[in-house]
Amino acid sequence: MRLTVNGKAIQIDAEPQMPLLWALRDLAGIMGPKFGCGIAACGACTVLVDGAPVRSCVMPVSQATGAIITIEGIGTPEALHPVQQAWIDEQVSQCGYCQAGQIMTAVALLEANPSPTDEDIDNAFGGNLCRCGTYPRIRAAVKRAAGGPAGA
Amino acid sequence: MSRLGTITRRTFLVGAVAVAGGVAFGTWYVRRPYANPLLDGLSEDEVAFNPFVKIGTDETITIIAPRAEMGQGIATTLAAFVAEELDVRLDQVKVEHGPASPAYYNAAMMEEAGPFPFFDESLMAEVTRRSFGTVAKVLGLQATGGSSSTRDGFVRMRQAGAAARIMLTEAAARRLDVPAAELTTADGEVIHESSGQRLTYGALALDAAAIEPPSDIPLRERAEWKLLGQSQPRVDMLAKATGAPVFGVDITAPDMLFGTVKMSPVFWREPANADLSKAEVVPGVIRIVPISSTYGHGFGILATNTWAAFRAAGLIEADWGTPDYPADSAAIDARLTQALADPASGSSMRDDGDVETLFADAPRERFVEAEYAVPLLAHACMEPMNATAKLADGKLTIWAPNQVPTLTAQLCASALGMETTDVTVHTTQMGGGFGRREVDFSIYAALLADAAGGRPVKVTWTREEDIARDVFRPAAKGRFRARLDDTGLPVALDMTIAAPSILGSVMRRTFPSISPVGPDATITQGAHDQPYSIANYRVRGIKTDLGVPVGFWRSVGMSFNTYFHEGFLDEIAVAGGMDPVDLRRRLVADYPAALGVVDRVAEMANWSEPPAEDRARGFAFALAFGSWIAQIVEIADTPAGIRIEKTWMAADVGIALDPSIIEAQLISGAVFGFSSAMNQEITLREGRVEQSNFHDYDAMRIHQCPTFEIAILENAEKMGGVGELSTPTSVAALANAVFALTGKRVRQLPLSREVAFA
């Protein structure tokens, strides 16, 4: 089976029903997307498929035929994506486990809506759970990345 | 304040701790320092000055921050302790958790484990603190908890940095043939100003390590601090913003297998008549093995991928047995109610004056009584429990996101019949901890490694397993009475609280042969230890075993006792016709730090002005983990339900080591508390946990999150913790706000039993 992940074609040997998350993590060694619930209830596994945020824990790998982008594909420590830079500037992460999913959600939101309101942010991030309670800083970072005023 | 002579505290846990120590570590060597665990495994080009500082000739400076980084930012602040005195920038250093070692014992965590309130500075209280600190050292228990890490590291880790700096300076003095007093240090260099000569730490490291460590290590005054006291960029932030594989679930090793566990949903029971046939034929499944441990019984699945293991776990069929403990919420409530019926069986953790005499002739209109209860709670860390283990050539290696590395090594060795010295524990970063990450998942991984033929195996739990097989926040119930005087102030307050002993439960699953004796202070933590001056004041805790495993959940006993205490004080205020803030001001008048946070938060929230229409506010105060906090929550009645609009917190932490991290922790603790108070509850049916995932055990979402206004104060004389500080008051202040808004006094959590949240 062929997947296109972060611009590269990769070959994996997976059952068609295997969730994309486990194909990425266990078979392709791409560790950014995280397992949190397995039922699309927490958003830790969020990746982009053809630009749309997808819960990879419930998407069968056989359906992931589009271009898959994980957090590894948006920026690197040397060349950060503006959303990643905003996350660092606002010092968002605590445990950090949900943050790859939060950042991918932010990337998708800002791509579709470069100037999100608070309500837009609520709607986009409602499915991304954070047990550390970083929500105020997530909100601030999204606004910072959008070029708006910084600060929560 | 408390009159120790009247209190039966002397046997407090010391017996149990001593026995555990004897079993665990044998002989007592109180004075002897532990060996530096970094000395094993150094390359020729690096040296370890002490357990906290390694320097390589290539200028690599490594600081060991030996506490679990589970989001609280501890790696950054502990590194700053060392860096502050070592004279290096945080961006110059590598920060590592380091090996499991008794050298990293946590004395501060144990010091407050005694029965004395934080503000009690009596001789007996101080002696007990020192004794408990000594026990921690003797046990060599490396652990993260009790919001203790900064208090524990504050002197020791700054001294480690200073000692290394002194040795590096001395090495430079010898090399340059100048007096050490002429040398200064900055950014990883020793500088001789007058000659302009500079030597890097890397160039000096080998010589410096051969110099005798100083015995007298002066520490810098606060006015000289460059890092501490100011917000630092967190050392883990870049990795976490770029998806770096830092967590336990991210461990990879050559030839690695994957696995999971399916433990009996009925606690303590061994499965019978197991049918593994459906599970074994799942493609990718290699082997299913029985697991038997002090934590419980069930099965482990070895597979070629995690998904296969998860599917197989769901297909295991067995007779899981019947519970030998209260099997549902009604039975739990009955057991707690039964315990409360015999209050004299409890331990008095505070007994000032004589409450009974005051109650005997209390006029009805001056008498208040109430009963409160809380449910079991799960931790629900974002990263489910997991560990990776490899057993080869008689050596066990474990990579585990855990809060107790030395205990992990010991109990995994015990599970496999090995020597602890043959076990290596690598502590990864963790996706949340909140007190959950003890030893079970590591034992299971070790047992699966034993069946994996020398291959490493990464064992990840399903979310369902993570919730069903948690070690829960205890269910608890309390009965409270108060007598008010003519002005509305309480002259007598009596609190009796029934809850399981967390320590007893921990011992059952870690050292089952030991029965702890004496009271457990966590049962009344947050009730017996508050700085309220009430002439007749009694707090009794009744150990009530519920069978279900209970553990440390962010803020431990305070997670329910502050709700009890502050909820009941709110009732007292209403009954006595007093303003809740004014009532607290009167009761904490002897403690300036307490008064300071109460006044400050009232001012921030403009408490004296009524809130807008359809809005209401609740107040709570606590002395928690050495810090003082007052909090106001404002909620609104909306068509979709109650919405938490805003919360104000004033926290006095004594010394604010990193304001940004403290602010983050105050918000984090509040969101954690709000989540639990609004909707969370673990219930049992036939002894099995009914909740299974975030659809029925959810937490606060971004659209429910209030705005925050926070003041960090530094008036208190002693430094306190921050990781658990705001959770207790958030629960209580929210419940009190719900009363103010709706008139409903919700005395049983979660609040969603009686009101709906947006």
- Rg of chain B, please? 27 Å
Overall geometric form of chain A: globular
Classification by helices and strands of chain A:
alpha+beta
Instruction: List how many beta strands of chain B DSSP finds.
Output: 27
Strand order of the largest sheet of chain A: 2-1-5-3-4
Give the CATH class of the largest domain in chain B.
Answer: Alpha Beta
The sequence of SSEs of chain A as H and E is: EEHEEEHHHH
Q: Name the beta content range of chain A.
A: 5-15%
The name of the CATH superfamily of the largest domain in chain B reads Aldehyde oxidase/xanthine dehydrogenase, molybdopterin binding domain
Write structural notes for this entry:
The complex is a heterodimer of chains A (152) and B (758). Chain A is built from five helices and five strands, in the order E-E-H-E-E-E-H-H-H-H. The termini of chain A are far apart. A five-stranded mixed beta sheet of chain A has the order 2-1-5-3-4, covered by helices on one side. Chain A has two domains: 2-73, Beta-grasp domain (Ubiquitin-like (UB roll)); 82-145, Orthogonal Bundle (DNA polymerase, domain 1). Chain A has 152 residues and is of the alpha+beta class. Chain A has helices spanning 20-27, 82-89, 99-112, 118-125, 135-145; strands at residues 2-5, 8-11, 46-49, 52-55, 67-69. Chain B is of the alpha+beta class and 758 residues long. Chain B folds into three domains: 12-230, Aldehyde Oxidoreductase, domain 4; 253-323 and 385-460, Aldehyde Oxidoreductase, domain 4; 342-377 and 472-753, Aldehyde oxidase/xanthine dehydrogenase, molybdopterin binding domain (Aldehyde Oxidoreductase, domain 4). Chain B has 20 helices and 27 strands. In chain B, strand 19 (476-484) and strand 20 form a beta hairpin. In chain B, helix 2 runs parallel beside helix 5. The longest helix of chain B is centred in the N-terminal third of the chain and has 28 residues, at 149-176. Chain B is globular and about 85 Å long. Chains A and B meet through helix 1, helix 2, helix 3, helix 4 and helix 5 of A and helix 7, helix 9 and helix 19 of B.
